[in-house]
Amino acid sequence: MSIYEQHLDRNPANYVPLSPVSFLTRTAGIYPDRIAVIHGERRYTYAQFAERCRRLASALAKAGIGKGDTVAIMAPNTPEMLEAHYAVPMLGAVLCAINTRLDAAAVGFILQHSEAKVVLTDREYAGVMEPALKQADTGPLVVDIDDPQAPPGKPVGSIDYETFIGAGDPAHPVRLPDDEWQAIALGYTSGTTGNPKGVVAHHRGAYLNACANALTFGLSPRPGVP
Could you tell me if residue 5 is inside a domain? Predict the structure, then answer.
């Protein structure tokens, strides 16, 4: 056995699994008071944003979500969508963000095929989500997102998003995956040639893709600031 294969196993001092979840903890720790999210009249600092992500993770955990479970979300580019992208992976669960342009049949297939246990849905898409949920027989917990910037829509779930995360713990632990090859997201095609087809991404790939995008965009530590 080579000398380089002896006594050099992975340990907390020399190895951390790559995961986008680490972006949240780093930024909230270094820039807690900087504005992280702007959406209409809403403004969240990184500290507040991290707290909301922890609350959502805690609420999902209380609802029975854990490693390997699927959480689906159908929403536009809103704070809730961003929070889900951190809260779900920090539980070891898998986020399935559904294309908002799909019809009810395709959405219903995705909910069924992904075995989604929780569905976060913007009330703007109630007209599609309501029949989609009837098609899927997995019986997920449905949480309504009421975005004041969006067109009105009726609730289709059993609880609204702010009430749901309000019961969550703001100090819920942020955990990295056991293995960076662990699944982080499940995306589906539009189903133009049949049923939508799922594609799985892992924590390592998502982390490296984010870093590459930041380099390509020339993203600075203070984007938008001259």
Answer: no
Q: Domain for residue 9, yes or no?
A: no
Residue 50 CB neighbours (<10 A): 22
What residue numbers bound the domain in which 70 lies?
Answer: 18-217
pLDDT tens string 201-219: 999 999 999 999 999 988 8
Q: For residue 12, is it within any domain?
A: no
Helix (H, G, I), strand (E, B) or coil at 169: coil
Distance CA(213)–CA(124), nearest Å, equals: 30
CA-to-CA distance for 187 and 171, rounded, in angstroms? 30
Cβ-count burial of 70 within 10 angstroms (0-12 exposed, 13-18 middle, 19+ buried)?
buried
pLDDT tens per residue, range 107-132: 999 999 999 999 999 999 999 999 99
